[in-house]
Design a protein that fits this description.
Largest sheet: 8 strands, mixed
Structural class: alpha/beta
Shape: globular
Radius of gyration: 21 Å
Order of helices and strands: HEHEEHEHEHEEHEEEEHEEEEHEEEHH
Number of helices: 10
Strand content: 25-35%
Bound molecules: flavin-adenine dinucleotide
Length: 416
């Protein structure tokens, strides 16, 4: 059934008793042309584009929990393409363009809201680096505006502009950036892929990858062996563990990142705002809650929960930027497992095992990347060639020294 105002009215007239599940609860078949491991945003988007763009519909997405239980349903929902390196800008801009048409494409209201992303700067040196980034974006036809203090004040008068330690000197604004309702992205892609014949298999953990003569031929799962023509790994925070099932050691560490949601407030924060003197980013959801986050917890973990010192650190950053936050009550918080790569950039590539492909290392950037990641991974799986906008995301770049280090932090995953 296609969602539309007419179907909504028809269901309402029938007392809303005729809604059916948005996707089938598929049981595993003996084999598929492609098996995607991981039913997060990237796995589901990959399956959808395999079916829609490449006509490959004999596809299974195998998820150990339920759809939306991973980072796709845990992130702070920010989308943007305000990157500075040539390896990143075309990819994230392609993703933003896909977001712009996504709801019509998948026939699902994902609440894509291009309310703008404002990165504040607090020193002259930081302004210079933001100017460089803005210029790099504009050279790639990506929108970027440099705001002076007066313009930032007009946009967000509640900020602490004259804080003696971190005075605000201006900001870099990308108006086309914004937020998208994260779990709706998972549900929308799942429903759209299912409608094209993809099997979405929940509660099915992959516990082994069967390799015959150097080629992957299927996955061992908690619901039996599934044969596969090709296997795509899209396991985000668990990438290293799942790749290890095929004997691969990835340049990735897993870290916890926390997200926080406040009580509902009247509209106050007009766009996404990031603090340049600490690590703090915030937006306001359509329900009124402030949604914010900051640094990762800083040690390796597979636990989907964080610790109090980081809560304190994030809230300190928030209060330094917008003192009114001190009186706002925190409603809930949670953690997600981040696949932090050595240079802070992702990997979309083949592996040393034939017919086994890898999509991983998304760090902080994975939600905004979802559509482009799915598109490019589907392209790689279907055509066995790298999509041009993902050309920088090769696995061998770490050995070859061609890293894509947007932050310039070096090989320290916890700092990216
Ligand atoms: C708190 C937080 C805030 C964030 N904020 C942002 C943001 O604002 N903007 C942004 O761009 N990015 C953000 N991110 C990053 C982004 O959410 C992730 O990079 C992205 O969601 C990862 O891709 P995914 O959606 O496919 O991951 P996931 O949803 O985690 O999907 C991976 C799936 O693989 C499954 N899996 C793992 N092992 C197995 C197995 N053995 N068998 C079967 N299935 C398995 C997992 O259960 C999981 O569902 C944030 C992340 C966190 C944690």
């Amino acid at each position: 059934m296609r969602y539309s105002i007419f179907s909504l009215l028809a269901h309402a007239a029938a007392g809303n008793r005729r809604w059916t599940p948005a996707w089938r609860d598929a049981a595993p078949k003996p084999g598929y042309d492609v098996v995607i491991v991981g039913g997060g945003g990237h796995g589901l988007a990959t399956a959808y584009y395999l079916a829609r763009v490449h006509g490959i519909r004999n596809v299974a997405v195998v998820e150990k929990g339920w759809i939306g239980s991973g980072n796709v349903g845990r992130n702070t929902t920010i989308i943007r393409s305000n990157y500075g390196l040539p390896g990143n800008i075309p990819f994230y801009e392609f993703s933003l363009k896909l977001w712009e048409g996504l709801e019509q494409d998948i026939n699902y209201n994902a609440m894509v809201s291009q309310r703008g992303v404002l990165n504040l700067f607090h020193t002259d040196a930081q302004r210079d680096s933001f100017v460089r980034r803005g210029n790099a974006m504009r050279l790639h036809d990506v929108d970027a505006e440099l705001l002076d203090v007066a313009a930032v004040r007009r946009l967000a008068p509640f900020l602490d502009f004259d804080n003696a330690r971190f005075p605000i000197r201006g900001g870099l604004l990308q108006r086309r950036g914004g937020t998208v309702r994260h779990d709706a992205v998972a549900w929308g892609y799942a429903r759209a892929a299912d409608r094209l014949g993809v099997d979405i298999i929940q509660n099915c953990e992959v516990s082994g990858i069967r390799i015959v003569q150097g080629a992957a031929v299927g996955v061992e799962t908690s619901r039996g062996f599934i044969r596969a023509g090709k296997i795509g790994l899209a396991c985000a925070g668990n990438s290293s563990r799942v790749a290890a099932l095929a004997g691969l050691r990835l340049p990735i560490e897993s870290h916890v990142l926390q997200a926080f949601v406040s009580e509902g407030l009247k509209p106050v924060i007009p766009c996404v705002i990031t603090f340049g003197a600490g690590h703090f980013y915030v937006s306001q959801s359509d329900k009124g809650s402030l949604v914010f986050g900051g640094d990762i917890d800083g040690y390796n973990s597979y636990a989907q929960r964080g610790n109090l010192p980081t809560v304190e650190d994030v809230c300190e950053g928030g209060v330094a930027l917008m003192p009114f936050l001190g009186r706002v009550r925190l409603l809930r918080s949670w953690g997600g497992i981040m696949d932090m790569s050595m240079d802070g950039s992702p990997i979309i590539d083949r592996t040393a095992v034939a017919r086994l492909f890898l999509n991983a290392g998304w760090c902080y950037g994975g939600f905004k990347a979802t559509p482009a990641s799915g598109w490019c991974f589907a392209h790689l799986l279907a055509a066995d060639e790298t999509h041009p906008v993902a050309a920088a995301y090769r696995l061998d770049r770490f050995a070859a020294g061609r890293v894509v280090d947007e932050k310039g932090q070096g090989p320290h995953p916890n700092r990216h």
